[in-house]
Amino acid sequence: VHLAPLDQPMTTDRERWTMRLGVVLAMAGGAVGLGNFLRFPVQAARNGGGAFLIPYFVSLIVMGIPLMWLEWAMGRWGGARGHGTTPGMFQLMWRHPVAKYLGVLGLFTPTVIMIYYTYIESWTLGYSVLHLLGHVPAPGPDALGTFAGFKDAYVGVPRAGAPNLLAPAAVAYAFFLVTLALNVWILMHGVARGIELLARIAMPMLVAFAVVLVAWVLTLSPRAASPLDGLGYLWNPNLSALLDFDVWLAAAGQIFFSLALGMGTIQCYASYLRESDDVMLTGLSTTATNEFVEVVLGGSIAIPAAVTFFGLTETRTIAESGSFYLGFVSMPAIFATAPGGAVFGALWFALLFLAGLTTSVAMLQPVSCFLQEEFGVGRRAAAVLLGVAFLVTTHLCIFLRGALDVMDFWAGTVAPSVLALIEAVLLMWIFGGRRTWAEMHRGADLRAPTLFYVCARYLTPVFLIVILGGWLWQTVAGADPAHGLEGAGTGWPIWVTRVFLVALYVAFGLLARTAWRRREREGRT
Amino acid sequence: VTAGGWIFMGVAWALATGVVVWCYVRLLRDDAERRR
Predict the structure, then answer these.
(1) How far is Cα of residue A175 from the mean position of the Cα atoms in its chain?
(2) Choosing among B20, B21, B30, which should be mutated to test the A contact, i.e. which has the most A CBs within 10 A?
(3) Which residue of chain B comes nearest to A239, CA vs CA?
(4) DSSP labels for A63-128?
(5) pLDDT for res A7
(6) What is the pTM of this model?
(7) Which pLDDT score, from 0 to 100, does residue B34 have?
(8) Which residue ranges of chain A lie beneath pLDDT 50?
């Protein structure tokens, strides 16, 4: 194992964040997404209520906070040496030929997530505008059925005679184009005047919208039940759940995905820090912001509202139907019957849109940064190039049945856990635990207690192996052959998507190899 | 909400809110000190 010299930062003319609060808000914006408002309450309600918070906070301390600090430190270290993406960072930290190919995960993952995430994000924009304009159906006697049909019509049901092809509404396609264009426009303005400015405007708005919605939900007049019953449904502890391995797995998974770990986005954002910038307090602040939005705000809107309007029994069914059902079927059905529902519906989906937008620009940045740094593509040209690439590739998710689920399975679930495991081992064992810890504390007033060192070196990798292994075991053992490994079916679109994903990884691998060779020729490694 | 529910919700909310407030106060204070 050859180690890169620690004391040889390269002088680079990289873009920089303008203020520390801006970095924290941008990072928090990357982490706070739809999952904070939809996935967390569903997971908590399904897995022991208040008791779910015990494994949740244990996972946060053992895995979430240490990984967050490691990714910030790795990003800042790489940025000081002219690398804003993980292939270069990994190769510098571990001079082994395979390192850069492992680092390709940090390009592959955000790119694939971006392909389907922009489309989902566009649904929230579309639903927000449709609520504001009053273009939603009347609830009728079966409000949930009405809005399930509305969502199917919006997103697209299989075409008659071609069950593998979806036919979305024209309005859904139009909002996708607007959403993608907005993402590209922000990216064109760069880190400080694009992403940071967006975060400084969007994050306070997001919190304000969420506070208004929490206040509205908690003061609703009782119908099938009261809002307090809704809080009770979410928080009343079922302590026996603590003995269930699946509950621990769900809690660890929620912490992991909620903090957007293992995606290459945190490292990329952190690469725009200066070498003397603190990563300890800023990393902790990002984590704390995400947790506040998730636990306090995210838990107090959708599930309590569902219990109030539909009662406990129906809400159990809603929670079992998943996050999308909660967000895009149950919530619109509530807004359709509640006083002022059009305004609050628009607000709810605007809140989700802001959460999605700050996350999607974070997903775009690594590959944009890679094109700029490694191939000298201009910032605006890179943004336009990516816009065209995503415009083409997202059509897989828009029109092919099951493509979105296959992408989410591999890039949204498997790849981040694998990348996080690799980087925990790379930083704490190959690069060196003490060396990483010293790098992490450079320029920081805050000192991490020794407990976190032990966690990062020993417990975090073990935790990740258990999560990944347990989850894979659950998935493979529980897979229904009729629904395929990804639960998305077995038709030809599934194979087309799988082949696309492999080809994309190989393409990124070739680009990483070309980039590294070019740097070697120019003596910039 | 049962007594256990209130306890879990109260502790979780207090922890989440307390840590985020502490972080932002310290961030702003540090920034002010550095500017001085």
Answers:
(1) 21
(2) B20
(3) B4
(4) IIHHHHHHHHHHHHHHHHTT--SHHHHHHHHS-STTHHHHHTHHHHHHHHHHHHHHHHHHHHHHHH
(5) 42
(6) 0.93
(7) 77
(8) 1-11
Task: Tabulate helix, strand, coil % of chain A (nearest 5).
Answer: 75, 0, 20
- What ipTM goes with this model? 0.94
The whole-angstrom distance between B23's CA and the closest CA on chain A is 5
For CA atoms A144, A150, A152, A157, give the dihedral sign.
Answer: positive
Residue in chain A nearest B3 by alpha carbon = A236
- Chain A closest-CA separation from residue B34 CA (Å): 11
Contact between residue A471 and residue A417 where contact means Cβ atoms under 8 Å apart: yes
Which residues of chain B from 9 to 28 reach within 8 Å of chain A, CB to CB?
9, 11-13, 15-17, 19-20, 22-24, 26-28
Q: Show the low-confidence residues of chain B (pLDDT under 50).
A: none
pLDDT, residue A12, reads 57
**C-alpha to C-alpha distance for A470 and A397, rounded to whole angstroms:** 28
Is the torsion defined by CA of A501, A358, A370, A414 positive or negative? negative
Looking at the partner chain, which of B16, B27, B31 has a beta carbon nearest the beta carbon of A291?
B16
Dihedral pair phi/psi, residue A259, rounded to 5°: -85, 0
Predicted local confidence at residue A470, as pLDDT: 84
Query: Is B2's Cβ below 8 Å from some Cβ in A?
Result: yes
* Helix, strand, coil tally for chain B in percent (to 5): 90, 0, 10
DSSP run (H or E) holding A158: strand A157-159
